[in-house]
User: Which sequence fits this backbone?
């Protein structure tokens, strides 16, 4: 398959007969006879004769939502019950609130996944307050390199352990991986409470990465594979939102546990003699802080196997010869959908798409094509940029080191430093909530472009604050103001966008490979930020180090403008069109957008036409999901344009069901 390149600004020519194109347009142009034959073959192969009535009707719904028009009898005699039609109307309601009316079992699954995300956030910030105390207790005062190594140990492991995601999922299934990684997280968090040397703490925290890495890749996939497409965008975003909730919990634990025993009494717990700091009387507080995240993963471990397994994973096993998995997949979907009709529809569609993926895997080399195929390379580049900038905007400097920074460089007491750090965690969580709506309405790219200038500005506020004399009364106020407002700007933009953007921009057939790469990139730079901050802080001064990250916020804005296209409200085939344009076209469009904004908002010119990269009204760029030869035995419509569903990263089609 040759790269799709545009020439002289012309739209790239896309081959609708390509296997990956057929994944984006399932059943396009199929006649009634073709559909019937395919349905019969599937029922025979799956041995689901007892559910054939649901699968047969659901398959026609997978081809078109208009397959059962109201008041018109189909020539094949198939029809819908009133209760089934009511739930389909609810599923396709234009009112966004109706899309969230889902079975309770789906929300139980989302709740368990949210706890798993919170585990990660809590793991990350437990060290924030604890290091105020264990820096002296473990003899790390003045040893910036070793302190950074201990703090960054989990993320060093994550940069490699996330590659275990594929073999572990293949072996243990989605729930099994979540169970194992949460159990590892709980045990290693408990292990962090017992070290008496920095080497022991490093080992415990490094092993913690085995619990964080595969879990961070598996939970979003599990939630996305179980959720219907009309709310998948919001559910995929929940990963980052509840990670922010866990980050907040880590800060709160630091405040609550700081005063345990005599941990904060300077008259008892001081650096001389050193052994005094390692007694339960003085070190119990930071040991409990590091152990506190062990509670949430135990809840996930207890409940994850009460949830349905991923239907997609079950069908993958069924297609490899274990035919009992077909019925398990159908029953799993029955628990996650309102009706058996919807379960039958999704079962047939997912199986069809898995067959298409297998054909592609035989014909192509998905991993190498991430780098050689122009469309995939540009999607990978844009995803890596968003992941890289999530770390290099400097947010995790605050997440991991805010308490130490406030204590040592802004003259706050231990308790005040912990309290103000907790305030940042609360802001980080609360201001992520609006992104549930804005990420699908305002757009991913627009959120990034709108928030990065503010992130740069508020980092500069902290640069100025730390440049002031230490006895200046304005310094503490400016530090907190800059820190909090930076959190306000970060949370609805660069916080949730990278994972959503990466998941939807990759083509269906190599999304696992692509997500493995970008997740590894994210964790590697997370490790880099964590290990280098103590040295940066010493070599650059605190003011200069924050200036470094402010500069990256400025550079990042230009990277997004030129290399990160918008993906909001675009179907798979439209995403293929967007990323198949050459990089020069994207850069040209970004500069056109910049000129338009300057002319409209700064120069106040009127009557300017906003530059649009991909016109949804262009008939060459909007595909007919059923084709001219569609034979509707219900006497239905000859042409129905594809209905694009907001918030459906990775492939909502006109059927409105999961395709990824």
Assistant:
């Amino acid at each position: 398959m040759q790269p799709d390149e545009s020439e002289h600004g012309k739209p790239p020519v896309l081959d609708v007969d390509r296997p990956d194109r057929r994944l984006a347009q399932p059943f396009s142009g199929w006649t009634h006879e073709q559909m019937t034959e395919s349905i019969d073959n599937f029922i025979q192969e799956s041995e689901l004769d007892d559910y054939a009535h649901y699968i047969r009707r659901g398959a026609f719904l997978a081809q078109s939502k208009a397959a059962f028009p109201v008041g018109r009898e189909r020539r094949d005699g198939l029809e819908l019950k009133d209760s089934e039609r009511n739930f389909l109307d609810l599923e396709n309601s234009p009112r966004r609130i109706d899309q969230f009316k889902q079975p309770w079992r789906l929300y139980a699954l989302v709740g368990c996944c949210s706890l798993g995300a919170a585990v990660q956030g809590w793991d990350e910030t437990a060290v924030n307050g604890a290091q105020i105390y264990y820096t002296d207790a473990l003899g790390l005062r003045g040893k910036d390199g070793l302190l950074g190594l201990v703090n960054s140990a989990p993320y060093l492991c994550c940069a490699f352990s996330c590659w275990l995601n594929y073999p572990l999922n293949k072996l243990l299934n989605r729930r099994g991986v979540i169970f194992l990684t949460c159990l590892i997280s709980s045990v290693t968090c408990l292990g962090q409470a017992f070290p008496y040397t920095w080497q022991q703490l490093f080992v415990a925290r490094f092993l913690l990465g085995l619990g964080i890495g595969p879990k961070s890749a598996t939970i979003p996939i599990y939630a996305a594979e179980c959720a219907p497409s009309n709310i998948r965008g919001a559910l995929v975003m929940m990963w980052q939102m509840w990670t922010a909730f866990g980050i907040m919990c880590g800060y709160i634990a630091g405040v609550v546990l700081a005063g345990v025993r005599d941990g904060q009494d300077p008259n008892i717990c001081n650096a001389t003699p050193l052994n005094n700091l390692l007694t339960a009387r003085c070190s119990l507080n930071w040991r409990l802080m590091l152990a506190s995240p062990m509670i949430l993963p135990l809840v996930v471990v207890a409940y994850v196997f009460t949830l349905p397994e991923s239907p997609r994973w079950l069908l993958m096993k069924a297609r490899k010869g274990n035919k009992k998995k077909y019925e398990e997949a159908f029953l799993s979907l029955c628990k996650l959908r309102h009706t058996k009709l919807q379960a039958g529809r999704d079962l047939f569609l997912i199986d069809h798409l898995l067959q298409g993926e297998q054909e592609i895997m035989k014909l192509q080399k998905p991993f190498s094509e991430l780098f050689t195929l122009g469309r995939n390379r540009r999607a990978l580049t844009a995803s890596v940029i968003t992941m890289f900038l999530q770390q290099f905007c400097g947010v995790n400097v605050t997440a991991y080191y805010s308490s130490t920074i406030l204590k040592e460089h802004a003259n706050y007491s231990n308790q005040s430093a912990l309290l103000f750090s907790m305030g940042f965690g609360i802001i980080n969580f609360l201001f992520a909530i609006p992104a549930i709506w804005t990420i699908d309405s305002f757009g991913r790219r627009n959120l990034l472009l709108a928030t990065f200038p503010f992130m740069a500005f508020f980092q500069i506020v902290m640069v100025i604050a730390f440049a002031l004399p230490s006895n200046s009364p304005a310094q503490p106020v400016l530090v907190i103001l800059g820190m909090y407002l930076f959190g306000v700007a970060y949370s609805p933009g660069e916080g949730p966008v990278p994972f959503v953007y990466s998941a939807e921009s990759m083509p269906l057939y190599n999304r696992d490979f692509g997500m493995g790469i970008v997740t590894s990139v994210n964790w590697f730079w997370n490790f880099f930020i964590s290990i280098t901050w103590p040295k940066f802080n010493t070599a650059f001064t605190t003011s200069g180090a924050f200036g470094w990250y402010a500069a990256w916020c400025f550079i990042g804005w230009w990277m997004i403008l030129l290399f990160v296209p918008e993906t909001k409200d675009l179907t798979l085939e439209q995403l293929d069109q967007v990323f198949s344009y050459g990089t020069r076209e994207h850069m040209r469009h970004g500069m056109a957008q910049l000129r338009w904004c300057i002319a409209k908002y700064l120069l106040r010119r009127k009557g300017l036409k906003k530059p649009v990269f991909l016109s949804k009204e262009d008939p060459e760029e909007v595909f007919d999901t059923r084709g001219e030869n569609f034979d509707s035995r219900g006497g239905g419509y000859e042409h129905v344009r594809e209905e694009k569903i907001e918030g459906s990263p990775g492939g909502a089609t006109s059927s409105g069901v999961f395709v990824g």
